[in-house]
Specification:
alpha/beta; 7-stranded mixed β-sheet; 12 helices; 12 strands; binds pyridoxal-5'-phosphate
Amino acid sequence: MDILAQAKTLSQQGKIVYHMEVGEPDFATAQCIVDAGIDALKNLKTHYTPATGLLELRKAIAEYYDRRFSVKVDPRRVVITPGASGAIQLAISCLLDAGDNILLADPGYPCNKNTAQVLAVQSKNIPVNKESCYQLDAAIVKKYWDENTRAVMVATPSNPTGTLLPKKQLKELHQQVEQNKGVLIVDEIYQGLVYDGEDYTALEISDRCVVINSFSKYFGMTGWRVGWMVVPEDCVDAIDRIAQNIFLAPSTVSQYAALTALKESTRPVLDERRDEFKKRRDFLLPALKQLGFKVNANPQGAFYIYANCESFTDDSFIWVKQLLHKQGVALTPGIDFGSHLANKHCRFAYAQPLEILEQVVDKIDTFIKR
Ligand SMILES: Cc1ncc(COP(=O)(O)O)c(C=O)c1O
């Protein structure tokens, strides 16, 4: 956030800033989705929906799982939320009490531990490395589980590393969590943006885990604030009551637009964007290695590369600030994602066109040489 604020200030001063720190697609929402939102407003769809969302959208999401992954989901288990952020808040509120703890990967998505903290839940942020694909696994969970642990949360593909949790690893992880009588929460927000490896859903493995997803990333709807979660049958009522109190309901117009996002006829434009992200990764990854970054976390999805910059600095936060001020390139320092080897890492978000990425590589080259 500090870097983002500085980058914004520099932009306002008229300086050119290359925004490689922003975690959202650069593409605007697809026109057919925007049109569906406009139609919803024209048809005065301006009232509250149920707290768990429009039944029509819950059914469309269940059909989506069937179509894409051959998984049958009861639409009653699908809850529409204000983005994945709303789902994370609901999941932690529902599954954990004050004083309980949740196991998270370090590096990982920073809002998980912050949301836990707001809810008086402790997070145990566990260092992860190449050996477990920068993800948690069954052995790690077994080692770190204690009498106050109630849940484990993972994201596949991960932010900041873009690594996938291999299906076998997730299966074993789930078994371990079940054995410990806890709940596994799987954040699949980057589903659809997978370039190597299997794009699957944890629902293929179990209907006992909580799956979080969103229209923000693959569907390109960050600003619409709409996402969803699939929860075990016995959590639906509790989630419904918490949602009624915290959010009342997700945005009505966004839910109507989301119905169009899920249509098969929208898929080609979304897949075209996914292919564009892959092209960018295929350019940026070797280019960064050529510059002298080490990338141990193999980025298979999302739009991030978590690069080791220890050849240039032993404090990535300072280095990132200098890079911004000297060359106008904004990155996210490792410290944002945890403390494990954070000062040796920075995150590149390749949510920028190829020609910008080429300029970024040149700018960093100049910066390093100087
Ligand atoms: C791993 C992960 N989960 C959840 C979110 C929240 O997304 P949203 O609330 O826009 O759906 C993000 C956003 O960057 C993320 O990276």
